[in-house]
Design brief:
12-stranded antiparallel sheet, disordered N terminus, 368 residues, 3 helices
Amino acid sequence: MADEPGRRRPKRAVVIIAGGVTVVVLAAGAWAASDAFSDHKGADAEPALRTSTTAVTRTDVAQRQQVAGTLSYQGTYTVVAGGGSGVLTRLPATGATVERGAMTYEVGGERVPLFYGARPLWRELRLGVTAGADVRELEANLAALGYGSGLTVDRRFTSATYWAVRRWQDDAGLAVTGSVPLGQVAVLPGPLRVTGQDAKAGASVRPGMTILHGTGTAPVVEVEVDPTLAPGVHRHDEVLVTMPDGHDEPGRVTYVSRVAVSQSNGGDQGSGPPQQSLIPVTVRLRHHVADLDQAQVQVAITSEEHRNVLAVPIVALLARPGGGHQVVLAGSRRTVPVEVGLFDDSAGVVEVSGAGLTEGVRVEVPVR
């Protein structure tokens, strides 16, 4: 069912990382305080400021509350030795990014490439092995690396799988056997951004030993919100992130925790304000950004939203003698009293209603 004009729906949270809110509001105040149209008694009255016109629109208007956010990377990954033993001969540097097919570490001079998947391989994969999800994971990686010719990605290790494995092993500089022994590859959900080495070259590697740790490569913003706001924040809510250099990046809420965490009061136990419980929220950025791990940003959470209402730019508002607000209609330059609703500072608009105001009617705004 289409929205009825002016109908107000329950709030729907949208996270937006924004700045410059005060500047917009002050601009509106300056326009009103200039008293540019304080005397509209005739059509020939001259404004003190240059003006343009804009249309009254029907849109969604949201009111937001700011909280702090931190830029980070999604996922916490650990590379564990999967099988066999030997001497650790090589490691990727801290800060390096390891993608599918690239080396995670090297044992006895033999590389251990990275494959993508939901779980590690738990057995040797070869002709005659029973069908399983690990076979499908192997075949999916072979196909993604360019060895999918004649290969069907399923749960069965066939002769096509065998030959695909041999071609991949030959190109990767591995022992060409057509089978994948336990520990020949490391499996993670996606690319690895190395943040630390847990072993050093020359160490003896044993199964289950932690070699590296790191994160994924997808940039995210970690936010902790007050429990009173959390019920209005949902997965897939659209976001806009204002980066530390001032430019905006689009994103989307990907995770809202169901468990509150306690924020330390920073003081000695038993002193200072009590600990506050907050809800962790993760915002996924749509585009790659510069390496700004742990940089601080400001996050605006929608606390109330009115949908399908009339709105004008905030700078179109004038102070009305005796209190309240008004706008100036283009052409006739007649002032019309308006009732204001929510101010959407990030969009620079305000909800309005009043006699003579309809969608498409043009009002005057100052030209900067």
